[in-house]
Amino acid sequence: MSERQTALHGAHQELGARFTDFGGWSMPVRYESDTAEHHAVRRGAGIFDLSHMGEVEVTGPQAGAFLDHALVGVLSTIGVGRAKYSVIVDEHARVLDDLITYRLAEDRYLVVPNAGNQETVVAALQDRAQGFDVRVTDRGPETSLVAVQGPRALEVLEATGLAPAADVSALKYYACTTARCGGVDVLVARTGYTGEDGFELYCANEAARTLWDALLATAGELGTPEAPVTAAGLAARDSLRLEAGMPLYGHELSTGITPVEAGLGKLVEIALRKKDEAGTRTVGHDALAAMLQEAPARTLIGLEGVGRKPVRAGYTVLAGDRPVGEVTSGLPSPTLGKPVAMALVATDALEEIAAGNVSIQDARGRGVEVVQTGMPFYKRG
């Protein structure tokens, strides 16, 4: 039994959710059907409880300079009300987590790590804050996060009495603002992890149930068979993010996978160039710079199944008869009707793989026919 429960655990029980342990939290994996919840997000809207995610507030006159030092990325130059994706690494350039950072005011930021890495990120930020005029505060225990994702996401928010609706509808991707939704004060961000338009809403734990109920009430008002609105669990979230080619820590990112191998070389290159120009340095700066000078030993690629045999994480990738890598994430794609996977493979095998001499070996040693494809596997519109 997981030790932690979100403020919405009771609401999920009432909906008949099935639970799973995720990062030490008891989280709804599904309510009725993974596939139905997945399609709801692609066609209408899905409502997710993401309160297991971390929230770390960084405040003070040197908040921007501190985050430039602590994270891979230049956070001091993003505008108030904007957000940026980045990673945090150790001094050897090993990835501790990937995260999103919001600039809420001139000297106030909100860093959002993954659930299983929250304690690691908080500890690293507090340690790296030495010598900077900043305060690092873990807001995770008091904060809930609800996401509304899908082409009808804005309609769902507006149906709850969203105010000011014009400010939220005008939000650009990776931007945020304060608002009231369902009678609750929220920080609304136009971000997500599904490949669809959508919003993530941060609120106090004590207001989470009011917000959740207001959002779920729109299912009966707005939902149709063609464009449903429904609660969605982590199983749908995983298949959605995989179709969108988005990495998951512990699969495509880890301390054993370099940022360059994970496809984040351009992010690192731009960040280091800007920091060199500004005369600033990030933790792991030298190791990251050295990493950019060499071709990565492994490369993250996309694969599609030719038939319907499933492709799962941990399966071996073969170039000819030679094992050259491993599937990091793999699932049947509800949208595409075929298996899709991300795999980390030897860079020196890329030419052979591109030529079509590639297959998958499952856990029982049976072959699965696949072809290499670009990512993301799915793009909205």
TrEMBL record:
Domain of life of the organism encoding this protein: Bacteria
EC code(s) of this entry: 2.1.2.10
Residues that bind substrate: 200
SUPFAM superfamilies membership: Aminomethyltransferase beta-barrel domain, Folate-binding domain
Reaction(s) catalysed (UniProt annotation): N(6)-[(R)-S(8)-aminomethyldihydrolipoyl]-L-lysyl-[protein] + (6S)-5,6,7,8-tetrahydrofolate = N(6)-[(R)-dihydrolipoyl]-L-lysyl-[protein] + (6R)-5,10-methylene-5,6,7,8-tetrahydrofolate + NH4(+)
Family assignment from sequence similarity: Belongs to the GcvT family.
Name listed for the protein in its UniProt record: aminomethyltransferase
Organism: Kocuria tytonis
